[in-house]
Design goal:
The complex is a heterodimer of chains A (250) and B (258).
Chain A (H helix, E strand, L loop, with lengths): L1 E12 L2 E13 L4 E5 L6 H9 L6 E6 L9 E4 L3 H4 L6 H5 L1 H5 L4 H14 L15 H13 L5 E5 L7 H18 L2 E6 L2 H7 L2 E5 L6 E6 L14 H11 L7
Chain B lengths: L5 H27 L11 H13 L2 H33 L1 H15 L7 H8 L3 H26 L2 H9 L4 H38 L6 H10 L3 H29 L6
Helix pairs in contact in B: 2-10, 3-4, 3-6, 3-8, 3-9, 5-6, 6-8, 8-9, 8-10, 9-10
The chains are: A alpha/beta (250), B mainly alpha (258).
């Protein structure tokens, strides 16, 4: 569960103060999957960092499962899997990293790690090093690593934007599959509108900098989701409605 | 992969020995026609026979042993001091600010120019040789370890921080392995530098045995063939030391460049 009240973030630069986020409210239920859709450079990443406890807001406050973000267990999946995975560790050792930090007994940690890897079809690669895997597989390892310790929330910052179209769609299905099992509250930033709708219970549309919430859309597609929904009438109508919130300047 | 076909493997080996063979031929031609006074340049034939006989009468083993021993001790001390101090300097801006000027200053002074100082402090025994080698190699290792921390990927540290990894555990599990590739860059430069410094100290500080002493002794009595034989042997030792470090590097830092 994520509750945020009027988060504002200002950054001091030599030429003055820049407002990056302008009083954003969030109310994300336990087990809900919410995507944030907004233009690049709008302060999405700063917002995620604040929710994850990596950054402090200038004003407003955030609670994650009734705790301060710093004290909550946060799983974070970054866009750049190459620079976020640990290349000196095997696939399984990457996945069990947070369990190791939490001093979970090794036998149990391995069991949890192997279960997750099996779920995403990477069990046979558990003793490989991450650089021996494809890009999509590497990001699956990051996702497994982020959720291994059953975090209060899972935050994903454009995790699939470096992957090709068909891999991205496959990854989305894998992600939903794990999410369905664990029901982890998820905040997912995307700049791909199809992705934002396909995954989410709700889509939050952000304005350009300073980021504020422009509109929130409910996604009423049934779960489990399947790829044919991408061409359903419901989907396309929602897609148009979201696109209509953007004013294009010439 | 196309460049691993048998034919190309052959070509690769051919390229490998091409330049050495050209140098040998040039050397043979120069000494055959006496283009250089034989007092300064022995023929390859003489040099190789002297080298082989020094293996036969075992006299060179003692020298190789002593030189290797000094290189390993000097390099070892350099590693033990240089790596931790470099990592701390890379991590803590306070330590960095406190030491940066001093280290940059000493880095500019050639190690060889500090011989007299080391002789004063450590005497003319092996200790001075260890110390001067450790000094020269240690600076290289320290600076590379420091850059290892600076060049590490910030994102991995952020990942660790989202998992609440802090303090010594962050250092041990993320910052140190992240710095390892750069630490090994330092090792490769430092091992060659260690050999250079040991040879020079053996030549100029004086000792009972060592390849440097063998070179200077032969030079003093104009045993040119012996001198080149010892120089050649030093080259072989340096080559092998470098190969050993590279071998260990490939095992330890298996992810480098991938």
């Amino acid at each position: 569960m994520i509750v945020a009240r009027s988060i504002t973030k200002e950054i001091e630069k030599p030429y003055g103060v820049i407002k990056v986020i302008d009083s954003v409210d969030l109310n994300i239920e336990k087990g809900e999957f919410v995507t944030i859709f907004g233009p690049n450079g709008s302060g999405k990443t700063t917002l995620l960092n604040i929710v994850a406890g990596l950054d402090e807001p200038t004003a407003g406050d955030v609670l994650v499962s009734n705790k301060k973000p710093k004290d909550a267990n946060v799983g974070f999946v970054f866009q750049n899997y190459n620079e976020s995975l640990f290349p000196w560790r095997t696939v399984l050792q990457n996945v069990t990293f947070s369990l190791e930090i939490a001093k979970v007994p090794q036998v149990e940690a391995v069991k949890i790690g192997e279960h997750l890897l099996n779920k995403v079809g990477l069990l046979h690669s558990k003793d490989k090093f991450v650089y021996e895997l494809s890009g999509g597989q590497r990001q699956l390892v990051s996702i497994c690593r982020a959720i291994a310790s059953n975090p209060d929330i899972l935050i994903m910052d454009e995790p699939f934007s470096a992957l090709d179209y068909s891999t991205t769609r496959k990854m989305e299905l894998e992600l939903l599959d794990i999410w369905q099992e664990k029901k982890i509250t998820t905040l997912f930033v995307s700049h791909d509108i199809d992705e934002a709708i396909f995954l989410a219970d709700r889509v939050i549309v952000l304005s350009p900098r300073p980021a504020s919430i422009k509109k929130v859309f409910e996604v009423k597609l049934a779960r489990p989701r399947s790829l044919d929904m991408l061409s359903s009438l419901e989907f396309t109508e929602l897609r148009n409605a979201i696109l209509n919130t953007f004013e294009y300047e010439k | 992969m196309p460049f691993l076909t048998p034919l190309n493997m052959k070509n690769k080996k051919l390229y490998y020995i091409l330049i050495p063979v050209i140098i040998l031929c040039l050397w043979q031609v120069i000494s055959f026609f006496k283009l250089v006074n034989p007092l300064f340049l022995a023929s390859p034939y003489d040099v190789f026979t002297h080298l082989i006989s020094s293996f036969y009468n075992r006299s060179i083993f003692n020298d190789i042993g002593h030189t290797l021993y000094r290189v390993i001790i000097g390099f070892g001390i350099a590693t033990i001091i240089g790596v931790p101090l470099g990592l701390i300097m890379g991590y803590s801006s306070k330590v960095y600010n406190a030491l940066e000027f001093t280290i940059e200053f000493f880095r500019g002074i050639p190690t060889t120019a500090l011989f007299p100082l080391f002789l004063l402090v450590f005497g003319i025994g092996d200790q001075a040789k260890f110390a001067v080698t450790a000094w020269g190699a240690g600076l290289v290792i320290l600076i590379n370890s420091m850059y290892g921390v600076h060049l590490g990927k910030e994102l991995r540290i952020r990942v660790a921080k989202t998992m609440k990894v802090t303090g010594l555990e962050l250092f041990r599990k993320v910052i140190f392995p992240e710095a390892l590739p750069q630490i090994f860059n330092g090792f490769r430069v430092a091992i060659s530098l260690s050999l250079i410094i040991v040879i020079v100290t053996e030549m100029f500080i004086g000792t009972e045995a060592g390849l440097g002493k063998r070179i200077i002794d032969a030079q003093l009595v104009y045993q040119t063939a012996d001198m080149y034989a010892a120089i050649l042997m030093t080259g072989v030792v340096g080559f092998l030391l470098n190969k050993i470090v590279m071998f260990v590097e490939n095992k330890v830092v298996h992810w480098k460049g991938k």
